[in-house]
Design goal:
The complex is a heterodimer. Helix content of chain A is 21%, strand content 36%. Chain A is of the alpha+beta class. Chain A folds into three domains: 39 residues, no CATH class; 122 residues, no CATH class; 239 residues, no CATH class. In chain A, a hairpin with a 4-residue loop joins strand 24 and strand 25. In chain A, helix 2 crosses helix 4. The model of chain A has no long low-confidence stretch (mean pLDDT 97). Chain B has two domains: 211 residues, PmbA/TldD fold (2-Layer Sandwich), CATH 3.30.2290; 225 residues, no CATH class. Helices cover 23% and strands 39% of the residues of chain B. Chain B has eleven helices and 19 strands. In chain B, helix 1 packs parallel to helix 2 and helix 4 packs parallel to helix 5. The chains are: A alpha+beta, B alpha+beta. At the A-B interface, strand 1, strand 3, helix 1, helix 2 and strand 6 of A face strand 1, strand 2, strand 3, helix 2 and strand 4 of B.
Chain lengths: 438, 447
């Protein structure tokens, strides 16, 4: 249980930016805070090379938020425990000869209330209730342990709203069904085909993560300008790369904070800018970067409302909200039927990417070989290790079955873990090489 | 000091309120922190940041029911509301099968303020940031980015077991990345509790030199290599202290599960958990149950010797007493110390013969936490070692291995060690350079 309340203030003085915060909320301490900030900014402005200017934006006065049918404030600790116990009870003692003696289940809720004002005259009040679930298990098959999550990839489920969001997930059905699928990956022993280029169908969870890691992050304008260089890294994209062809005509990626009940939902960002959908890749071209007011001024555009702080004592910076590959018109069965030779990576666990977002890797958990349009044996831990242009350039089919999972996006210094949705339909890559985890 | 008085008042109010509501066990850790930060990018200051917080971490038990909570709301009204809410939630919980009452004090603690330097409070870190950038540029880089974080934390603990103490810790953390072009970068750290141990110029210079040497890097083939890892990388890829926590082990998420008393690494590996390493970095003299922290030998001559416990996990695992590592739920280390080896850095390079040098890494992720199977991405400068010398820069690859396998493949450990704490290493760690054989290297194929 955590209770946080405080005030964060950002000032610009002669091109120098200062941020400060305190949870000692009194007239005296806030006056002291602002005095310190202005002094800090004045000091930093001496001889400053790159002066900060913020883009001119419309000011707003609004109350916004997310409705709760079942109010989170009414959810008691006892209920949360029984909720998790019910899910735990739904997990069979053995699934296809795989036992799960170690089961870690987590559920949480948070209510984020924010009062925002700026010197342009914006006055905004936002209220976002948020709920979620995570589960990490260690399964044993033939005496060997495997750590898996449900859903896989260390991701979670949930969203914004009241407890009805959790009710709709029907986790006592979902978790055992998912475990049945996950065990196919745990039990697999066949080596994936690694000797030739093949087609790879990716499940929504895997494909969704690629949109976050190798499109959303490199398209953050603060990275492109080098501001996050020492921590979260920079980007292979440069200021003049808007319009650059990165992928095939089937590559479409968007980020949309306004998706109702999504984990990354908001209507106004933490610089008072109204949020809307951002089309990041359109028909294989980068068509929009994520901007705040500082980067928008540099790029000569308007902010697209991407500035978020995870708590009052953190600086607002550019963040993704709900990033996803746009759905297409294929159905999974057709995609499979028209694949002569390949693999289907339905879920994953391990992944990473370099700090310019050019070299990414996803290691399959549940995966199958495809031959003549049919799923064959399960294969063990296929590795998709691929450059970003090759990845986006290889998409030749997108399904219509867009699905989301929840994640926590890490960025900032100090680190700010931001709640996000990650989504995609099934997609197919053509003519790529996979590896095998030794 | 006004904040100290206020901390004690806040802690006492929380404890009194909890006792009034019938709680048997109460532990309150109140922290007043003053964090200053200077960030820079592209040779220019991008942000100055100051955050002052009082936070309260509270543990309560009621009829063997247990709960923990944190509050960032230190007003009288806020504390009373928070404790009432916590106690209400606690009443609704089932009894804990593993309940143990808090350790009974009073205890004696030492050393007080071993890692506190009053000069940190008034230092101008904008000037230090400029010094680090200037040093990077004069060493061969054409731009530098990074941050200096300085923090002074006053801690105060009060428990229903009669433990009460305070401690004060300062930390200065510089993380600098220098670039010679878009594809060649170097990294430098300077992490200390004392201003006299803080060396921004050296960190900047190291980053700049690495950046320049990393120009025109080549791709390498997949395969197994002898790899020299700097302290920065070792502190990240060998997560020994967190894996030795009884909570991690009980959860099934540790490669050290069921390995207590067994050989898990080469003979020459020794790793300790230290409450406070005097004149080191950070640390605490008491844990969250009020027990004095101490030195625990986690790995002794390659054997997993000590699991880290709080009172509850100690009981659960049939051990006599806590190791002074509470976290009420999850035991944790506050300082990790790898013992020094017997090789100089020059000897390590020479004895490696053919291999790689990796200076930094990021994005370590596990395919299987229980077995320690992971991959990580080298970041910044990396080099081929040929004929016992550091040669051409390399890039575009990944390490895909397992922690237990690497612990058994450590060949050389340096005499020199460095304090590490940054984005990828959250617990202060004193780490040496190591050479590990047979490290698996992968890269993007067919693209």
């Amino acid at each position: 249980m955590s209770d946080a309340e405080g005030i964060g203030v950002r000032v610009v003085f002669d091109g120098a930016l200062a941020f400060g915060a305190t949870n000692l909320v009194s007239k005296e301490s806030v006056t002291d805070l602002v005095t310190r900030l202005v002094k800090n900014a004045k000091h930093a402005s001496e001889g400053l090379k790159d002066k900060v200017k913020l883009s001119r934006e419309q000011s707003y006065t609004a109350d916004w938020g997310v409705d709760e049918k079942k109010k989170l404030e009414d959810v008691q600790a006892e209920f949360l425990i029984s909720f998790l116990k019910e899910i735990d009870k739904s997990i069979p003692s053995s699934v296809s000869e795989v036992t799960f003696p170690n089961r870690n289940l987590i559920t949480f809720y948070a209510i984020d209330e924010k009062h925002y004002e700026n010197s342009d005259g914006s006055k905004l009040r936002g209220r976002v209730p948020r709920v979620g679930y995570l589960c990490l298990l260690t399964g044993f098959y033939d005496g060997k342990p495997s750590t898996v999550s449900v859903p896989p990839g260390y991701s979670g489920l949930g969203g914004t709203g009241g407890w009805e969001v959790m009710d709709a997930l029907n986790l006592t059905n979902y978790v055992p069904l998912q475990l049945q699928e996950v065990t196919n990956g745990i039990r697999a022993s066949a080596r994936p085909p690694t000797d030739e280029n093949i087609s790879v169908i990716l499940g929504p969870a895997v494909a969704g993560l690629t949109s976050h890691e190798s499109c959303g992050h490199p398209g953050e304008a603060d990275r492109i300008l080098g501001r996050e260089g020492a921590q979260a890294g920079e980007s292979f994209l440069k200021r003049d790369k808007l319009g650059m062809q990165i992928g095939s005509e089937e590559a479409y990626v968007s980020d949309d904070p306004t998706i109702p009940n999504s984990m990354g939902f908001y209507l106004y960002d933490d610089e008072g800018v109204k949020a809307g959908k951002r089309r990041l890749i359109t028909s294989g071209k980068f068509t929009e970067f994520l901007q705040n007011r500082q980067t928008a001024e540099v790029f000569g555009v308007k902010s697209n409302g991407s500035s978020r702080a995870v708590q009052f004592d953190r600086e607002p910076i550019i963040r993704m909200a709900n990033t996803f590959i746009e759905p297409g018109d294929w159905v999974f069965e057709e995609m499979l039927k028209e694949t002569k030779s390949g693999i289907y990576i339905k879920s994953f666990m391990e992944w990473n990417i370099d700090d310019k977002r050019l070299n990414q890797r996803y290691v399959g958990l549940e995966a199958y070989r495809i031959e003549d349009g049919e799923l064959k044996e399960a294969v063990k831990n296929p590795v998709l290790e691929i450059t970003t242009p090759k990845y986006w350039g290889s998409i030749d089919a997108r399904g219509g079955d867009l699905a989301f999972t929840c994640g926590t996006c890490g960025k900032g210094d100090p680190m700010q873990g931001a709640p996000v949705f990650i989504g995609a339909p099934h997609i197919r890559l053509s003519d790529v090489r996979v590896g095998a985890r030794s | 000091m006004i904040e100290k008085v206020r901390q004690e008042q806040v802690a006492q109010l929380a404890l009194d309120q909890a006792k009034k509501l019938g709680c048997e066990d109460v532990s309150v850790v109140c922290a007043f922190s003053n964090e200053n930060q200077v960030r820079f990018a592209n040779n220019s200051i991008t942000l100055v940041n100051n955050v002052r917080d009082i936070t309260l971490d509270v543990y309560l038990s009621l009829s063997k029911k247990r709960i923990i909570g944190s509050s960032y709301n230190p007003t009288e009204k806020g504390i009373i509301r928070f404790i009432e809410s916590l106690a209400k939630s606690c009443r609704a919980l089932p009894e804990s099968k593993d309940y143990v009452s808090l350790p009974q004090g009073p205890f004696s603690y030492s050393p007080h303020h071993a890692n506190y330097d009053s000069e940190v409070e008034d230092a101008s870190f904008v000037e230090y940031a400029k010094e680090a950038m200037s040093s990077a540029l004069s060493s061969g880089a054409n731009r530098a980015s990074g941050s200096i974080n300085s923090e002074v934390t006053n801690l105060f603990i009060l428990t229903s077991g009669g433990a009460t103490s305070s401690d004060r810790v300062s930390q200065i953390l510089l993380n600098i990345r220098a670039f010679a072009d878009d594809n060649s970068s170097g990294h430098g750290l300077s992490c200390s509790s004392y201003l006299s141990d803080f060396h921004p110029s050296e960190a900047g210079s190291r980053a700049g030199i690495y950046a320049k040497r990393a120009l025109n890097s080549a791709l390498i083939s997949e395969g197994e290599y002898k790899v020299i890892f700097t302290p920065t990388v070792i502190a990240n890829i060998l997560p020994i202290a967190s894996s030795a926590s009884a909570f991690t082990i009980e959860s099934g998420n540790s490669f050290l599960s069921e390995r207590l008393g067994q050989k898990v690494a080469v003979d020459k590996l020794n790793v300790e958990d230290r409450g406070v390493f005097e004149h080191g970095l950070g640390g605490r003299i008491f844990d969250d149950e009020g027990l004095p922290t101490r030195t625990n030998r986690i790995i002794n001559a390659g054997v997993f010797e000590t699991m880290l416990h709080n009172s509850t996990t100690a009981k659960k695992f049939g051990k006599g007493s806590s190791t002074g590592n509470a976290g009420i739920i999850a035991p944790r280390s506050t300082t990790v110390v790898f013992s020094a080896g017997d090789s100089s850095l020059e000897e390590i390079v020479k004895e490696t013969g053919e291999g790689l040098l990796i200076t930094n890494n990021w994005y370590t992720r596990y395919q299987n936490i229980r077995t320690g199977d992971y991959s990580t991405v080298p970041r910044d400068a990396a080099f081929r070692i040929r004929n016992g010398e550091v040669k051409e820069p390399v890039s575009g690859f990944r390490l895909s291995d397992s922690v237990p396998r690497q612990l058994s493949n450590i060949e050389l450990i340096s005499r020199e060690r460095e304090w590490i704490k940054w984005w990828e290493v959250s617990t202060p760690t004193l780490a040496p350079t190591m050479m590990i054989k047979g490290v698996r290297v992968t890269r993007a194929v067919g693209s």
